[in-house]
Specification:
The chain has a five-stranded parallel β-sheet with strand order 3-2-1-4-5, sandwiched between helices. The mean pLDDT is 94. It contains five helices and five strands; from the N terminus they run βαβαβαβαβα.
């Protein structure tokens, strides 16, 4: 079985703020330490999988095509640092518009990723900037790490023994 680092997107991978929803590539800014930390995790044998709520789609603020453009930009940018994202799972729903089971703290996206990549939840981690990220991971038996919004992910590596 594989092990994975599950990652929230907005506030963890990229800067959250300014526009609330990030759906233009010019608004997408990597947070400090992200490429280096992700490379470190990948070198330790972890698959890198993004699990993200994107309720702006259900609200009609942006389209799935716009989201795909941002995700392509993000993965291309990370590839320049030698980082490969194994999978991106997103929930296009919003509870005010279209309730679902895939929006965190729901677990459907985690379940799909675990099945698709044969992942052992007990040897995997979720890095998020919100309690809902950690709650969803906990429901799946995945260890969760709450980091500050727009924090430096490299601080997880400096903390000895946190993710090995």
């Amino acid at each position: 079985m594989n092990k994975a680092i599950f990652l929230d997107r907005d506030g963890v991978i990229n800067r959250k703020g300014g526009p609330y929803y990030i759906y233009f590539i010019e608004d997408f800014i990597l947070n400090e330490g992200v490429p280096e930390a992700l490379k470190y995790f990948a070198d330790k044998g972890y698959l890198l999988i993004i699990i993200t709520n994107q309720g702006g789609i259900a609200k009609g603020i942006y389209t799935e095509e716009q989201l795909q453009e941002v995700h392509k930009y993000m993965t291309d940018l990370l590839k320049m640092y030698g980082v490969n994202i194994s999978g991106i799972y997103y929930c296009p729903h919003h509870p005010d518009v279209s309730p679902c089971d895939c929006r965190k703290p729901g677990t459907l996206l985690f379940e799909k990723a675990i099945k698709d990549f044969n992942i052992d939840p007990s040897s995997s981690w979720m890095i998020g900037d919100s309690d809902i990220d950690i709650l969803a991971a906990d429901k799946m038996g995945i260890k969760g790490i709450l980091i500050p919004e727009n924090g430096n992910m490299m601080e997880l590596i400096v903390n000895p023994g946190l993710i090995t």
